[in-house]
Amino acid sequence: MIRFENVGLRYGMGPEILRDLTFQIEPQSFQFLTGPSGAGKTSLIRLLFMSLRPTRGLIKVFNRDLSVIDKQELPKLRRKIGVVFQDFRLLDHLTTYENVALPLRVVGKQESDYRADVIDLLKWVGLGDRMHVLPPVLSGGEKQRAAIARALITRPEVLLADEPTGNVDPPLARRLLRLFIELNKLGTSVVIATHDIALLEQVDARRMVLADGRLSIFD
Which helix (H) or strand (E) holds 36? Predict the structure, then answer.
């Protein structure tokens, strides 16, 4: 589904922060992305989401070479990928329900077709009683859960999650992990960037470890 070949990344004229990354995200796969703080995990997530272009190397997403693809086609490809960023990126003027439903509204779906699904997902992530409040009223953990629900509502082919359990307590972290696992069983490829060792130990999954700009993979 996603293929990197000898990908490198630098910001401006600085040194490469990612070097010679070669790997694939297979259909229906589950993997953790780990590494020390500052190793470049968020930059790699952005490369996977196509919000950042590499300095060199080949990236193919759904068999499309990003170096030659028309920029107007990128939004269509991105709609196949759900992403949870560390800064949540919720819209403060929309309620929790409206933020989660937004990806469906953008593609022209009618509320009558998705309302029940949005409500059920919000209840599952523990926000059933917070669906009509605005993000500034939510706690950090609640914003995290809303961002996760928004990424999942379209049932994406690939889910990218950058520290998705960083602002929740251990019981909810385990619950969210089960949600990711169930989504994976339904056919979604999952990439979770995390520092949470306890989370890693709960799933026998591929580990992609970033260190000194290079990637090591342990199946």
Answer: none
